[in-house]
Every structure is written in C-alpha cells, then in structure tokens.
Design the sequence.
C-alpha cells in the first residue's frame, strides 16, 4: 500500500509569510480598499445590529442611528414568539442530514466522474449543469403531489431528500474539480496494488481531498439553513418548521416590527458566522494545501 | 466499444422510463376527479391554515376562538398553522391540488373560489347547510356569492368594504370637516398638500393587489354601483366612458402627488412607514378596507409616541350620480372544507359553531375590530357595548347599506379571477404611463367577456331600484 | 519430443473478454452515480416531465388540464411581457456576471497580498453570503426606502425600488452585494495555490502589481475562474428570491424576470400551463448557453 503524502499546511503558510515580509510598505492602499470593501459588506448588518436593540417606535423615529440603550427585550421576545427553540432544532437536523446525505451522494458521483472512466460521463456532467439551472418554482406543484403520495410532506426527512437532490449536482461538480487535482499517480499506484474502487475512494481520495468536502459541506449546510421556499411549501406542521420561517413571524401585511425582525435575523445569522469563524482556518488551510504541487 | 454504447443507451432508456413513471404519479393524482376524503366520526383533530399574523392576534385566535370552540366541543381538537397572507393562497392551492392540506381551508374570495370549486377540491357544504339551517343564520347575499351550480362551496369569511381613515386630531387642528363630495375632497387634498401633508397614504409594497382597493373606491363612488352592476351582468361594457373617467380621475390624483407623494413612492414606501406617518399627522387620510381597523391602532397614542386619534368616514361621493353613504360591499376570504379531508364532519362542526353561535360571534366582533366581521344576520342592538364605537359603526352602517340598497361591489369578490388580477396589475401600467386609462379598460373588458362567457362569475347582489 | 500444439485463443474470444471487462468497469463506474441519478429522477426529472406535459395544456394550476397543443408557446412568443422579462434577464446576466467577479477578484487579490487581519476581512466579506436571502431582502428593502433609508442620509429621496428605471438595477445591486464575498473567499483560496516563485520571477522582470495580477494570478486560477464563471451564469438565470421579495417583479413589470413571471402566471393569473411553457423555454435557453460554453471549451479554453 503506497503511503499517502499529506502536506503540512502550517509550514506552507510560514513559507508564504517569510517571502512576503519586507513588502509591507506597499500595503496601505490595499488595506484602504479592503476596509472600504468590508464596510460595504457589513455596513447594512450593522444597521440591523443597531435595530435589534431599539424598540419599534425608536426605529421608526431614526432607523439608522445607534441604540441609546442596550435593551435585550427584542431578543427575549423574538426568541419565544418566534419559537426559535423548536425551529433551530429542526434546522440543525436539516443541516446535518442535508450535509451528510449530499456529501455521500456527491462524493460517490464526483469520484466516479473524476477518476473512473464513466462511459457517457461528459453527457452526464452536461445534464447536471442543466439540472442545476432549472427554475425550481416550475415544478413545485407536481413535486408536492408526488411527495404527498410518498408521505414525505410535513417531514424533515422529506425536505432533506429535496435538498439532497437540489444541492447534489452543484456539489458533485465542485467536488469533481477538487478531485481532479488529486494526482493520478497515487490512484494508479493504489490500483496496481489491487485496491478496489471503493477502497481507493476511502483510503486515497478522501484524505487528500477533504478540504473539498469541507467546502461542499459548508455550502450545502448554509443552503439548508437559509432555505425558505421549499421549507414553507413542504412543511406545514408548526412543530417541524425550520428557522427561516421564524424570521417571518414578525412581518405582516401592515407593519414589520423591525426590532423583533432584526433580533430574529441575528438569531439566524450568528450561529453560522461563529461556525464559519471556527472552521475557516481549516477550510482555507486545507484548500491551500490541496492545491500545491 | 459496442458493449459500453449499448449500456449507455440502455441506462438512458431506463432513466427515461423511470422519469415517466415518476411523472405519471402526480399527473394521475391531479387528473383524478373523485375526492378521497371521508366524513369521519365528527371527533378528533381538525387542521386549519390561516393568515393571522402578530403575536397578540394569534393568541386571541388560540384562546378565544379555538379555545372557546373546544370548550363547547370537547371531542374535537383544532390545530392551527399560521401564515403570511401573501403566501397562504399559493400554499393552500398547491396542497389542494395534491389532495392534501388542511381540513378547513381558509380560501380566497368568491371568484377565486369558483376555480377551486370547479376543480372539485372543496367539499359540498349543502348537506351541512341543510342540516344546520345556515340559510337562516347567514346573510342571503353572502351565501349566494359562494353557491355555484347549486352547491355551496364555501362560507363567507369577512364582510369587506372600503372607507377613508383619517387623523381626527389633525383634522380638528386644521379645522377640516369630513368631505362629502368631490369638490370638498379635492379642496381638502389641495390644502393639505400645500402644507406639506400627504393627502392620501397608500402603497402596494406589502400587498401587491393594493391598487384594486383604490379602483374599487373610484369605480363605486364615481362610476356608481348601478353602472357597475350593469357592467358585471354584461348589459354595458367596461369600456364605457363612466369607467374610463374613473380610472383617469384616480390617475390624476396620483399625478398631483396626492397619493404618498408620488407614483414611485407609492411603489416603494412600506405600509409600516405610512402608518407611522399617519399617526404622526404627516399623512392625512388612508383609503383602506375595514380590515385595517385591527392594525391602525398601533400607530396612535402613547405607545406610538403621539397624542393623536384616528377615525373613519365613508368615501365621499365623487360624482353627482352617487349617493353619499354608499358602501362598496364584498366578502374577503372564505372558509371551506377540503374534499380530501378525512374528518369532514368535525370540520363542519367548527364552521357551524363559528357561524351559528351568535353570542360568541358578536363577542368576537366586539373584541377585535373587523377581523371577525362575518355576514350573519343581527340587529344593531345586539352589538356588545364593549365594542370600539368606530368598529361598531362599521357594523351598523353596513347593516343600513344592505337594507337600503346603498351598496356597491368590491373587485375582489364580484369580478372574475383573471379580470380581478388584471385590475391591479394593469393599473400599475397606467400609473407608469405604459397604458392609457382607455387601453386599460379595453383590456379589462376583453378579459371580462372571456371569463363571463365561461361561467366564472358569482351570483351578483341585486340592485334595489 | 513433439509438443501438441495448444490452440491459441481466438481473436474474437479475446475481444469479447476485453469487452466484458469494459462493460463491467462501465457498470461499476455508473454504480457510483446511482444515488445521484435516483434522487435526480425523483425530484427533478419526474416533476419536470410533468411540467412538460402541462406546458401543452390550459391548466390553471388547480383542477383538470386540457390539451391545447402549442398554443402556450405561440402566445409566449407574442407576449410583450415575456420579451421584457427576457431583456431583464439579459441585463441581469451581464451585471451579475461582471460586478461580483470583479469585486471578488479585487478583494481576493488584495487579501492575498496582505498578511495581517486577512481572517477578519474574510469573515466580514463572507457575512452577506451567509445571511439568508429573506433577511437580506427585508433589510435592503428598509435601507432603500425613499424617505427613511440610506438615500435619505445621503440627501436623496429617490425611490430606488419604486422607480421603473432603477428597480431592476437596485435589486441586482443587492444580489451582487450578497454574492461577491463568496467569490472573494473562493478566489482567495485558489490564489493561495499559485506558486510564489512565479510572482518572484515576474517581479524580477519588473512587473508591477497589476501586471503581476494579469500574468501570474489570473492564469494561475484559471480553472477556478472558469468554473465560477459557469456557475454564475447558471445562477443568474435562477434569480428569483430577491426579486420576488423586494419588488414582486414590479413596479409595472420593470424588474420582472422570467422566473418571477412564471411564478406570477402560475399562481396569480391561473395560467399554470402557460407558466410551464415559459419554464420549458427558459430551460432551452439555458441549454443553448451551456452548449455554447462547451463548444468554446472544446476549443481549448480550460486547462
């Protein structure tokens, strides 16, 4: 069994750093632009953050001003009225299920399309691209009919299956481009050693391409967490609703309680941001290690 | 090479067949005409999807409506799911098509219910009506609006009319009187605009069909109910000048900047902001339906940071042919039973309680302005004294209007479905000058002719001559 | 001693043996694709075929559907609303393809050049992408409000979403804002894998930052760029959420794209058969775009 070489991300990073050190003088305009871009990206969120601490009438008076006092009233009200305890739990289940299912399905397919000679593979890839471009609003009614007959409506599992089907094409294509980078020599060597396709997938591909899997997991997980239209169509039981529906609980036809809505938005946003902060070092480090020769 | 080619073709063929098989299932379900529902035992769980938003409103529904019903009928449990109004209809329709969804369907108004009734997705309520004698409990005109081909398809949910809300404190401080005719209204609007106060607050940001409210007002109070009745029964056309002029008049008010300040602001200022300005006094009047009464209160008083009060007045008559004190009338929404429901008797029991228990119904009407105004027969004296006088006045005025024949026709009840959609979609084009009022009315007339010839009109409320 | 000649294996049996091996390998490879295929047939292909069927009927969205042949397609060609929607899709496509990629490349390149705070910037840029579309749309609807939004603070009372001239561009602005951070992070990761020796070589040749970008960075991340380009093309055609929430395709159809028109026809105008025909037409257009892409690819664009 050939030894699988892994790259040490830390040393690579250091290598980068020492080469870049002396160029600091050129960086000020870069930093300026980066800061402007950051303000552009996050500025609106700051407005939302402010509003979460203000009452609705305060917001009506001055929508974009910072709060005068840091009252947590909106947060506690939004949490209970929006039923976040239930909806967050449902969304976590959805995300975990969607990520696991999609990575398995997409992983198998991507492996085949990148390392096995699939007859008609090019056509299948084209079909995947086309499929991921279909306007989904188009077939909501026939799909709902089918799901009703299969008893998959009002079920988190049923919604999960829909996510697997809608996310897997893109996940497959993305994963395939990562897997293509895995050097063929390793795979060939393993095959010469007599390893079956499945063993190759497990022992050779997976360790080398795990940053790709992480990327796919992140994207699919995000999509499942934020998704709204499929969720409201297929889940009607209030006990099974995901977190995106909680956000809408404070908006009605005549008024939107911006204080509560902003607090609800933060509930939806903060877990994801924290997760991303925790994972992003690994995420980027993995990506950089996977690409170097 | 041959081996793999056959393989690929074989595989694609089997994929195609599988796809067809999977596609066939929903098609067969959809094409099946018979309902799969059953009457049930009259007990158990009944599911209901409804568009009540806001924590306080939902609590009221849970405690005072569902709670009261369950106390009276302990063997039945109601389960309510809440939705935003703009989403509910599409959700329900999708579910109905798949022969699933709630037991009690909170559906659209009369004309759109025709489409559902024709599709056999709603249970026939006639047997229940006979069993519990609903004809004596509900207003005749309201029941007729939901009876198609001899079958009662749904029960009318809420009596709708259009009126003008105004900032009473503002009017008092400026010495303004309630306008009763067009010249008074226009003078008032001009004066307000000159002071920097927006005469009419309105927007379609939160409700895409808002423009049909305004068209309802102008057609009923300028063209007049008699003309409308003749057009809706096919005796005259919508291209008649009396209708075109109404559209042109409304457009002229927009062009003067009397509605929210400009056409563009009408399209982009959220209702919450308009409401806040209304409370503050920078918006003088809001032409809205009676349903707004359950929401307008939040913009006035100490909680909203002002010392103002609101009230409502009937729409002034915009032409000499129309009597002051005419009210456009209609039904907003319906309650029906899903023909695929497995618990139809229990669902019907809820409907019977909702419409039949007069004390409970009147109490609801008093507790919450407008939302629970069902078309049951009652005398003015029966209205509980706990009702907000402004809400009580709606009930008494509408009773008067129905008795005296001083009523008109709201577009979302009496126009056929596609024409009704065109009323607001087309009007947007009139506002942006992409269509003239004459072209607008021509398209409406064409669409109306198409739909009425395929029998998509509810039974009209007759005129009292 | 004479040996009895063993009959050599005939050519056909060798060929048959090889074909069997290839067949088995082919089947094994397809076996990996089965889960994806099953899901796809169940959720996408099946309902899509139903939609194809409905596109040839007068289905209203509920109830029976009667066959009317190509009427829906003929009407779609004649319908001015469809023409406008396609034009809006084209405008959207051009903007969505250029703005986020330009910002993404800029941000990624600058990030790859600086050493400190890179992580902070990455997180901040990623936040709009990470936020749900319903949240972003509601937030920007408030921010773009004529009298109390950002414009008010900048001295203008323009109704961005209410003016037919700016409604489409305003929604597009929000979607670009949502999307570019994601591209920046992906490009940044790709740029990390560019061999630093190439940069040194370029600097030795006297190249400035911009020239380094053009001659080293861009070619180095070409596969990623191509892939992102393709995905952006596809996603631009799906633009629905934001438009639906922020303007409903209005005012007066000024921000209507094919997907919102389809939805409105199916659910508001009781013309679900017509909507299905629109959807099918859209799929054909996408197919053509993809075919053009693969033709260009065959001409040696990728790798």
Sequence:
């Amino acid at each position: 069994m050939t030894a699988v070489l892994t790259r040490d991300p830390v040393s690579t990073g250091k290598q980068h750093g020492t080469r870049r050190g002396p160029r600091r003088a050129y960086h000020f305009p870069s930093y300026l632009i980066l800061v402007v871009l950051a303000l552009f990206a996050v500025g609106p969120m700051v407005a939302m953050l402010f509003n979460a601490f203000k009452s609705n009438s305060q917001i009506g008076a001055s929508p974009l001003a910072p709060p005068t006092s840091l009252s947590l009233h909106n947060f506690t009200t939004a949490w209970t009225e929006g039923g976040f305890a239930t909806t967050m739990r449902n969304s976590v289940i959805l995300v975990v299920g969607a990520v696991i299912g999609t990575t398995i399905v997409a992983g198998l397919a991507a492996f085949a399309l990148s390392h096995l000679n699939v007859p008609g593979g090019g056509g299948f890839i084209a079909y995947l691209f086309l499929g991921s471009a279909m306007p989904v609003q188009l077939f909501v009614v026939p799909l709902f009919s089918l799901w009703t007959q299969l008893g998959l409506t009002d079920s988190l599992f049923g919604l999960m299956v829909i996510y697997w089907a809608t996310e897997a094409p893109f996940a497959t294509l993305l994963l395939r481009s990562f897997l293509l980078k895995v050097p063929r020599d390793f795979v060939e060597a393993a095959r010469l050693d007599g390893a079956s396709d499945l063993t190759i997938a497990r022992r050779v591909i997976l360790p080398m391409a795990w940053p790709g899997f992480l990327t796919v997991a992140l994207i699919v997980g995000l999509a499942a967490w934020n998704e709204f239209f499929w969720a409201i169509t297929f889940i009607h039981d209030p006990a099974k609703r995901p977190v995106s529906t909680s956000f809408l609980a404070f908006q009605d036809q005549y008024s939107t309680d911006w204080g509560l809505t902003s607090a609800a938005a933060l509930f939806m946003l903060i877990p994801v941001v924290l997760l991303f902060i925790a994972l992003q070092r690994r995420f980027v480090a993995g990506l950089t290690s996977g690409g170097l020769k | 090479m041959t081996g793999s080619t056959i393989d690929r073709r074989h595989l694609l063929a089997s994929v195609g067949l599988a796809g067809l098989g999977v596609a066939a299932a929903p098609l067969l379900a959809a094409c099946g005409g018979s309902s799969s529902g059953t009457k049930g035992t009259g007990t158990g769980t009944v599911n209901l999807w409804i568009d009540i938003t806001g924590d306080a409103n939902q609590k009221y529904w849970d405690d005072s409506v569902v709670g009261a019903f369950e106390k009276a009928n302990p063997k039945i449990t109601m389960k309510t799911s809440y939705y935003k109004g703009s989403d509910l209809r599409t959700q329900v329709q999708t579910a109905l098509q798949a022969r699933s969804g709630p037991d009690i369907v909170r559906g659209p108004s009369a004309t759109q219910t025709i489409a559902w009734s024709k599709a056999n997705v709603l249970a026939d309520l006639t047997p229940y009506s006979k069993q519990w004698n609903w004809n004596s409990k509900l207003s005749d005109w309201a029941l007729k609006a939901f009876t198609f081909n001899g079958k009662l398809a749904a029960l009318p949910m809420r009596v709708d009319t259009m009126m003008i809300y105004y900032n009473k404190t503002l009017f008092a401080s400026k010495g303004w009187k309630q306008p009763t005719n067009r010249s008074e209204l226009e003078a008032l609007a001009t004066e307000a605009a000159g002071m920097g106060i927006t005469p009419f607050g309105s927007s379609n940001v939160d409700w895409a069909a808002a423009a049909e409210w305004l068209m309802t007002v102008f057609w009923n109070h300028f063209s007049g109910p008699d003309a409308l009745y003749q057009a809706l029964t096919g005796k005259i056309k919508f291209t008649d000048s009396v209708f075109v002029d109404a559209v042109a008049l409304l457009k002229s008010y927009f062009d003067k900047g009397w509605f929210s300040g400009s056409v563009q602001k009408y399209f982009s200022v959220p209702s919450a902001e308009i409401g806040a300005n209304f409370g503050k006094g920078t918006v003088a009047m809001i032409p809205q339906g009676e349903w707004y009464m359950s929401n307008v209160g939040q913009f006035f008083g100490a909680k909203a940071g002002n010392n103002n009060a609101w009230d409502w007045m009937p729409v002034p008559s915009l032409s000499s042919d129309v009597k002051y004190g005419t009210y456009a009338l209609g039904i907003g929404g319906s309650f029906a039973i899903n023909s695929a429901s497995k618990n139809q008797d229990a669902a019907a029991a809820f409907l019977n309680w909702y419409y039949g228990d007069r004390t409970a119904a009147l109490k609801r009407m008093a507790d919450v302005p407008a939302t629970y105004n069902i078309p049951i027969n009652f005398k003015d004296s029966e209205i509980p004294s706990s009702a907000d006088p402004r809400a009580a006045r709606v009930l008494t005025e509408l009773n008067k209007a129905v008795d005296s024949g001083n009523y008109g026709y709201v577009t979302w009840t009496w126009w056929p479905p596609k024409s009704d959609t065109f009323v607001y979609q087309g009007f947007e084009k009139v506002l942006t000058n992409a269509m003239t009022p004459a072209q607008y009315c021509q398209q409406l007339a064409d669409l109306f002719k198409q739909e009425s010839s395929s029998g998509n009109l509810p039974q009209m409320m007759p005129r009292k001559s | 001693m004479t040996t009895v000649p063993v009959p050599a294996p005939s050519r056909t049996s060798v060929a048959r043996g090889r074909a069997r091996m290839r067949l088995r390998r082919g089947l094994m490879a397809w076996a990996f694709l089965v889960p994806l295929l099953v899901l796809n047939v169940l959720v996408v292909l099946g309902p899509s075929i139903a939609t194809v069927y409905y596109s040839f009927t007068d289905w209203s969205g509920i109830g029976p559907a009667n066959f009317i042949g190509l009427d829906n397609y003929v009407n779609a060609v004649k319908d001015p609303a469809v023409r406008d929607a396609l034009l809006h899709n084209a405008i959207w496509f051009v903007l969505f393809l250029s703005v986020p990629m330009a910002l993404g490349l800029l941000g990624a390149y600058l990030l790859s050049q600086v050493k400190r705070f890179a992580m902070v910037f990455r997180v901040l840029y990623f936040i709009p992408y990470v936020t749900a579309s319903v949240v972003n749309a509601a937030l920007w609807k408030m921010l773009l409000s004529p009298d109390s939004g950002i414009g008010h603070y900048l001295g203008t009372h323009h109704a961005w979403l209410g003016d037919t001239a700016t409604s489409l561009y305003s929604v597009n602005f929000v979607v670009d804002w949502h999307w570019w951070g994601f591209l920046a992070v992906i490009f940044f990761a790709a740029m990390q894998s560019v061999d630093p020796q190439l940069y040194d070589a370029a600097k030795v040749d006297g190249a400035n930052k911009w020239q380094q970008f053009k001659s080293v960075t861009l070619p180095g991340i070409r596969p990623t760029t191509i892939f992102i380009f393709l995905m952006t093309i596809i996603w631009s055609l799906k633009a629905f959420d934001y438009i639906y929430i922020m303007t409903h395709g209005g005012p007066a159809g000024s921000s209507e794209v094919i997907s919102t028109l389809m939805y409105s026809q199916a659910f508001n105008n009781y013309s679900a058969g017509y909507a299905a025909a629109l959807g099918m037409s859209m799929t054909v257009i996408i197919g053509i775009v993809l075919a053009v892409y693969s033709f260009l690819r065959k001409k040696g664009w990728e790798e």
Q: What stands out?
A: Chain C touches chain B through 49 residues (CB under 8 Å).
